[in-house]
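Exercise 3.2. Students should predict the tertiary structure of the chain below and write it as structure tokens, then compare their answer with the key that follows.

Predict this chain's 3D structure.
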Amino acid sequence: MKHALRLASVFLAATAALVGFVQPVRAADLPCGPADKGTVSLDGLTDDWGEVEGLDTGGKDPNLSFTLKCNVEERTLMFLVDVRDNYFVRSRQAHPGEDHFTLTLGGHVLTVFPGDARAIPTLVREGKKPAKGIKAVSALQEHGWAVELAVPFSAVPGWKAGMPLSYRVGVADCDSKAAFTTDKTLDAGGSLVFAEGDSALEGFLKDRGLKRGDIWFDKGVSLGGKSGGRVVLAGRNLAFITDGFVFVELPFKARADAKEARLADLAGDGRHALIVRYVERGNGGSREVLAAYRIAGESEIRRVFAAEVAKQAPQGRIDDKVSYLKRGRATDILIEAGSAPGLSAETWKEAPADDMIPLMLPWADDRHARYQFSGDEYKRAH
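Answer key:
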């Protein structure tokens, strides 16, 4: 098979503004498997893509629907956009309302005007200028038109190896050579799913006895430089996914105890940290913990920060306030003493935490703290 996927082995670790009728489509992952160099011939024909799994949008509507497929040849993304359209409208002037599509990769937008492989050329624009480094060839098909597109990873700003990449394709259909206006649009988007990363994700889920429906957080994470990956929260597990995976089990009992998850560059060094706020329960009470995790060398997940930010005790409850403050490229964590209805220094009998930064108390002299990071270390700013 010309497009047989070569799945990497998984290692285990213990720990335009458009007018007309718009048809929006929910996000969908697009498989993007590796192929040998030269497997896809850029000729606008679809024969090379017969064995590649793709996504259909708009059903098989002959007036406007499309199939999207993706492969990877070395460090180049190869796309097929196969559009079903019963009336092709394109001129050499490439008016904005003519048949075309936009391809957005990680926020980088390309506008592609298909040609007819004879008198009308295929045009790829970035804004109003020709896109650099992008190759595109199109041809008319029995059912409409198709474009094959080669996009080097180097042409996608911010792309990092191992990091998932968001995409969106929006097709604009024109049905009048007199008016050159868009009559209908159709779009779809989601994430490109690279074979190695998807195989590793499946390995992680199987190892932990989880299903894809257990995933409640899934984001691309930067490790600095040109490296990155995917951070996933599934059930109580935090996993880092590249062509393999590592994971840690977080110290809460149920999914409902996870209150918040976000990514932040705490140190300003281009490496993301995952900040999770969760509830720990025990001894007849509970506390909320704000914890930050960073990836060390793609093989270890470290907790680099932890603080109590709320506590429920028999006497009552205290909730501190958490803010995130930008400092250049870095992000500082600010914790301030919050509300404590009906409580006082005399009635609050809880001992301060000794395993992390203790709760800020509204009656104490010390009622706010700002934490700044350097690498995996933090200090309290004065």
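Discussion points: The first strand starts at residue 21 and ends at 23. The mean pLDDT is 87.
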